[in-house]
Amino acid sequence: MVIETKEISPSELKVSIKANQEEIDRIKNKVLLTLAKDVKIAGFREGKAPANMVEKYVDQNLLGNQFLNEAVSELYEQAIREKVLRVVSQPKITITKFIPFETLEFSAETDYIGEVTIPDYKTIKVTAEEVAVTEKDIATVLKNLSERQAKKTSVKRAAKNDDEVNLDFSGVDTKTKEP
Q: For residues 154 and 168, what is the distance between their CA atoms, to the nearest angstrom?
């Protein structure tokens, strides 16, 4: 199998894969053995017919589709493992060349995590800013804390500014509605 990788952007990668004949034959036989379970051929027990006999009796479109699904899935996974790529999304597969059971070339575009390099962190110097706290800042914080912790009590007097008032109101609709 020939694998070529091309970086589209820092987070996107295009992987081009060209299968060799040995892999194509192995995947074809694997698919034929899977399809053999559903094919009934006279003289053979169900699922026990040889691959070359199954190929004659099975629908060629079904065989081609199953082969493509299995080949693309298996070869893509193998390419990712061989090139040690850290992919993070499902690939967008494009079949570039397919001659049934002779040639298979496809490309896969996917998001990935590229090489991560850590800079020399020992050279980075950060100076701490000096913080000055004034009496006014302390007074403001204390006032806010006391307001948050204050308990509400009911009083029997006229409402003043900053008081919380609860009104129980029920009104009567005096307008008549016409149908």
A: 15
